[in-house]
Design a protein that fits this description.
This protein has 195 residues and is of the alpha/beta class. The protein has 4 helices and 10 strands; from the N terminus they run βαββββαβαββαββ. The strands form 4 sheets. Strands 1-2-5 form a 3-stranded mixed sheet. A 3-stranded parallel sheet has the order 6-7-8, with helices on one face. Strands 3-4 form a two-stranded antiparallel ribbon. The protein is extended and about 75 Å long.
């Protein structure tokens, strides 16, 4: 049985036109196509925040765990007397960009709709563990379907009959992504090259 969707909200961080012009243009095309097709009712924006961070230089061991890099080839350090420094940790500064606000927007929209009894169920596409508490609270009032956009471990596991019950989980496979690509055109929006 096909269910009618009450409201579809798409939450995303807005890609900067200044730092990523092609990504901004592609995202804008995708969002315009979603709206033109009627696939979403609202788009909520978070932001990307860029900062310079410091961290020790590390490599991975055989199990993928971090191992700090010390003075060894190819990073050899000499003291003022040109003698090799035998111990120490190398620090690197790097650009760190993170999405801010999208998870809060998702949680807020979901809880407002659930608490106002404006929806009979929730389907969320996310595997963000920051959403675990709001999802748990929603499950007490309505059935919740969680779609993991990747194949990793589900960040919000549970059981189908907790709260009001009828909850479900699904992980998207590559075949599902390929079968549901943006059409060549939607309204005046054309699918970006390479999609």
């Amino acid at each position: 049985m096909d269910a009618e969707l009450d409201r579809v909200v798409y939450c995303t961080a807005r890609i900067s036109a200044k730092t990523n012009p092609s990504g901004h243009k592609d995202q804008d095309t995708y969002l315009r196509a979603l709206i033109a097709s009627g696939a979403v009712d609202d788009v909520e924006y978070g932001t990307y925040v860029s900062r310079v961070k410091m961290a020790p230089v590390a490599t991975k061991d055989r199990k993928g765990r971090p191992v700090l890099v010390g003075p060894q080839w190819p990073l050899v350090v000499q003291d003022g007397l040109r003698q090799p420094v035998q111990s120490g940790t190398f620090l690197v500064s790097y650009l760190h960009t993170e999405e801010k606000g999208s998870d809060v927007n998702v949680a807020t929209r979901m809880l407002i709709d659930v608490l106002r009894a404006e929806v009979d169920a929730v389907v969320m596409v996310s595997n963000d563990s920051d959403l675990k508490l709001p999802v748990t609270e929603a499950k007490a009032l309505v059935p919740v379907g969680l779609i993991n956009p990747g194949k990793g471990y589900p960040a919000m596991p549970g059981v189908p009959d907790e709260g009001v019950g009828h909850h479900w989980w699904h992980s998207l496979a590559q075949e599902e992504y390929r079968a549901h690509q943006l059409p060549a055109s939607v309204g005046s929006s054309l699918r970006p090259e390479g999609w």
